[in-house]
Design goal:
It contains seven helices and 16 strands. With about 300 residues, the chain is an alpha/beta fold. It has a single domain, classed as Metallo-dependent phosphatases (Purple Acid Phosphatase, chain A, domain 2), CATH 3.60.21. The N and C termini lie far apart (about 60 Å).
Amino acid sequence: MLKIISCISIIMLTALVIIIIESVREHKIFKVTRYKIFNKKIPEEFKNTKLVVISDLHNAFYGNDNEKLFNKIRELKPDFIILAGDMPVANTKNFEKNIKTAGNIIKLSDIADVFYGIGNHEKRMMVKDLLKDNWDDYYKIIQNHKGKHDFCFMNNKKIEINRADKKINIYGLDIDLSYYQRFSKLRPDVKDIEKYIGKSDKDIFNMLIAHNPDYFDSYAKWGADLTFSGHVHGGMVRLPLIGGVISPKPRLFPHYDYGKYEKNGKIMLLSGGIGSHSIKIRFNNIPEILVVELN
């Protein structure tokens, strides 16, 4: 019996060491994941439009001032850049890093127009007393920057993107922090979403930045043709044939963990994120940026 226990202990310890070593490696690299989106509502003028999507940066730095990450984005030559929430980390230990992140991400507007959606970390910084001053400093850096292109802060905002006499819409959904609470059973319905961002125009191709993927059904019913989400970090540890192990709720083996989802012709692209916070574990889950081509 002791031999069996010893063998199991050695196997478990070996597995843990492998996970830690691999996690350290994966946090130092990132990949590019590509999607093509086909929709009859996309006007001809917007065919082949390229978007780069970043989610859950969490103060990660790939080289000094993120030059490795930004050089890759420049190389991809996007028409638009989507930030799908959680660029900073909402705790008092990260004040200086948050400010550094703000100074970095504004540089993206030298590449293309940037649409910055709100995640739970931005939201927490906005509403928690101990974090509000840090948020004010963070936001001022973004607000005061003048780049070659626009930097749009998408807190329950709609922006029309026009080419010739055609347009597509992009929305940013900033939901209440209660929808992110651990073990919360709250679910926004269509009317709740309309209170935040109004009704969707069903005749126009609508893109939605909505950080929390758990509510994809509601986003689709509201009228989001293409939703950009993050938050789950791919489930942190990904197992073959099973997928992500845990979500921030926390929930084991979350239904929405990573990749492309479709419901009645509506699509959600769920990024695995490009950073981590608190428990910094990734296994079989390389950080990523998304390249999305509209067709």
